[in-house]
Design goal:
Helices cover 11% and strands 46% of the residues. By secondary structure, the chain is mainly β.
């Protein structure tokens, strides 16, 4: 899969508000709805690092879930993918979610996947 395709497909969420976060055992799903007509789902099998202007948070931090939930109703302003390194989602409040694409940071065969009306994109580990 080309990086260009991955960025263009994931860029479907640029300008969209995150409507919910779903915690499923050892991964999360970020849900984006467009006028309640289309649901876009970004699944992070590698739990993201959350970066604010003053700190970074990982899953073991006690406030991680609350900070992640604070992104509900926030708009994604930029999507960036550095192939085999990281997927970054920048939100309007200047918080960034970073999902590692490095094999050493992951336990399964995939780091993330994105599903929308334009199809399905999976980021396998190198």
């Amino acid at each position: 899969m080309s990086n260009e395709h991955s960025v263009s497909h994931l860029s479907d969420i640029s300008g969209k508000e995150m409507s919910s976060v779903v915690f499923i055992r050892d991964y999360i799903q970020l849900i984006f709805e467009e006028d309640y007509k289309e649901t876009m789902i970004f699944t992070a099998f590698t739990l993201p690092i959350i970066k604010t202007e003053v700190s970074s948070y990982i899953r073991t931090d006690i406030t991680y879930c609350n900070i992640l939930c604070s992104l509900i109703n926030q708009t994604v302003t930029k999507v960036d993918i550095e192939e085999n390194v990281v997927i970054s989602l920048l939100f309007e409040n200047n918080m960034v979610l970073e999902i590692s694409l490095r094999g050493e940071d992951n336990e399964g065969p995939e780091a993330a996947m994105f599903s929308s009306g334009n199809g399905l994109t999976v980021w396998p580990l190198p």
